[in-house]
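dude i think i finally got it to work??
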Amino acid sequence: MQPNRLIHEKSPYLLQHAYNPVDWYPWGEEAFTRAASEDKPIFLSVGYSSCHWCHVMERESFEDPRIADLLNKNFVCVKVDREERPDIDDIYMTAVQLLSGRGGWPMSVFLTPQGEPFFAGTYYPPEVFLQIVRQLADAYQNRREEVMQSAREIAGVIQQVTAARYEQMDTEPDPRIVGTYLQQMRQQFDAVHGGFGNAPKFPPNTAFPVLFWLADNLENEDALQMALRTLDAMALGGIRDHIGGGFHRYSTDAQWLLPHFEKMLTDNAQLGWAYTEAYSLTGNPLYEQVARGIYDWVLREMQVEDGAFASAMDADSEGEEGKYYTWTLGEIRQTLPPALADLFCHVYSIRPDGNYHEEASRRLTGRNIPHLRAPLSQIAAELGMPPDNLEEQMHTARELLLQARLRRVPPLRDDKVLAGWNGLMIESLAYAGLMLEEERYTHAAERAARFILERMQDEEGRLLRRYRDGEAAIPAYLEDYALLATGLLELFETTEDESWLVEAKRLANRAIADFWDEEHQAFVNTADYHERLIARVKEVHDRSIPCGNGAIARLLARLYIVTGEENYAHFAYRTLRSLWAPIQRYPHGSDSLIHALLLLAGDELEEVPEVEETSTAMPMTGMPVQVQMHIMEGGVMIRFLMEQGWHIYGTEGVPEDLMPTRIEVSSTLPLVFGEPMFPPPDTLQTDEAAPPIPIYRGELRVVIPVIGIGELTQETGEIRARVTCQPCTETECALPQTVELVEQVRLQLRGENV
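look at this
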């Protein structure tokens, strides 16, 4: 088969699709020009190379000649690597969340030739996707005005959501907000398994710096214990690669056992820092061991030419997720001496029938994820062994298994070098080099920093985001400047080499010059020289890494502390002041901005302020469902968290004796709300003769967008949600429950933006 246009790209993710029968274009003028000239809509697919479900959709749909033919005839197809182009990803992920009520990758978005979305989702099974493509092609041909009107409305909401243009508050940002922050963290904390919220469970990367700051500077025991309990549980679970070191992306269960197996540079940089900080505060050797495992894996498997770091390792090898990282009992017995194999299997919970369940079907695969049910010291006591003896034997077993694993077919490594992601690892390695007294970590950080400064800048001294295969390209974004400069600042503090401080200040000053939005205050993710998209993003809330404004505010606060130069504090405070309204509403979603505020506050706080216990969640009172309301930019999100084995019903198609899920939202402010956006439900078949019943399990997020604003006569008011649902298992049902949720909000208009 002849390759498509993606064969000329540098992104490993795009190259994976170069031999699809889909007539892919990379994002660019050529694709949009063709769409306009042929009057075709655009199918935009966004993903990344280590994404398991991206591979699944490629195999099932993009390699299917039927689907490829239908796409090629009716759409201009565009493929984007979200790691190369976070600006595109941010904007269209907003569309996915608004239209489907959830996010994730691969992202599947259908656009007008002007780039405005009219349908958006994530992964679809092939027959479902085929039907969607047919229906959307028909709608664009035969109901054009309806499609274009919908696209214009959605684009308008996206512009409101992503702009985050909040009026400055009358009061200065107040570090006492950490009282509310800590209260929200307590409400979300899983005291049994560690972490926050239910499955799927992600490492709380951006929360660790705040929790450890509160523990170290204010001696707050709650903050310390939440952080340590989470790190302890993750260190035991299957999310940790016990054989090779490092951590997988996230856990599909609450116990941290069953991960998605991709390994990201960003997660491991931040977790390496967290375990190093935990060791520095407690002296517990377990944390040092886990941290060193992360860094040894990074230096062994993630370094590319001249010391920079690759972006990720794939989840799949030989067409199977997790095969590289999992073991049958027979494979372990073939690798280890008999007595050592028996001991290893006991310690690491290896079973003859396997402990690895396939995520969708929950069937056992016959393979095992090595994990610990308890710390080695406890297992040693149960076995009557000296702890040092058990650790020595397990170290030997892990080394033998690692050598055997290195002979397997490895997962694909995404070897593109990203400036900001390398900045996170530079910061982490530099800090570990100092705290763990390990010079090779410091030297590795310096090599990576020199690589980026020497090879990833243009002739005008502007940073470039991506390097691969001899080419540096794509103007860097706000996060790249902020995260790289923070890494260089950490190198200065570790080595006392002034040249690193000079470069950190240069990058910070460039970020202020290029990304500061003087009209609306705070920083935007893209500079004037970046490509203009349908919206310009100003981030407030963190994801797996600090948001752009959080990363730059934290950098500026640290530069102010190190240099005493008031200009850095000035811009950090202006950012916090501009974004204070969303920070106040949802402090535990803005970890990095809270951290910046605490750094600026210094000794101003003596303790975490006590706040009155409040909750926007349905009281549990023995019920297996929790309902929460979160105020978002541009709307409201209702979040349902259901215990394992329980479900609630969809909005229609529910038998008369059961209660469908209902959401009604109102406000004392003149806000006009659209219809609740429920994602597609699962189904439950209770009787072969009866139609399937729509249900939701696990976690459900429903977005209710603001679609209009009347005349604003007051700044503050309430948003109220009335939520009704009925929790059931497959054999019994609880009584229907109705809960009233209330949030105080402050809203001001500036021009046409909220």
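Residues 165-170, 614-622, 748-754 have pLDDT under 50 and may be disordered.
im so relieved honestly
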